[in-house]
Amino acid sequence: MEEISVQEAAGSPRVQFQSLETQSEGLSPEPQFVQDTDMEQGFTGAPPVPQVPALPHEGSPGDQAAALLTARYQVS
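The structure assignment produced for this chain is given below.
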């Protein structure tokens, strides 16, 4: 009885995870593309170089780094 419960429990979350992944994959590209266009315009208009080192004090360098990485991956 325990084995069946474990298998069922392991099967349920896996199905849910797959569903979530499929949804995320479908939703991710659209918002990322929109952000990329905005980011590129921002980078062209104002140099982000002085802003990036100054941000760590506020504690949001992760967002900047993530956005930069996303933009670079999209450009490639």
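Interim note for the steering committee: Residues 67 and 73 are 10 Å apart (CA to CA). The mean pLDDT is 55.
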